[in-house]
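User: Some background: our group keeps a shared notebook of sequences we're curious about, and every so often someone picks one and asks for a predicted structure to add to the entry. Today it's my turn. The entry only has the sequence so far, pasted here. Could you supply the structure so I can complete it?
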Amino acid sequence: MTHKNKEFEWKNNPIVVFAGVLAVYTAGNSIITLFS
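Assistant: Of course. Here's the predicted structure to add to the notebook entry:
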């Protein structure tokens, strides 16, 4: 298995995608709260 295939699988892992979205959402809310 090449590195590219492994990266492709990692990006298609729903749990990883969900965790990433959740992290970005939480960070975004923190920044908005900080500046408002």
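Suggested note for the entry: The longest helix spans residues 14-35. The chain has a mean pLDDT of 84.
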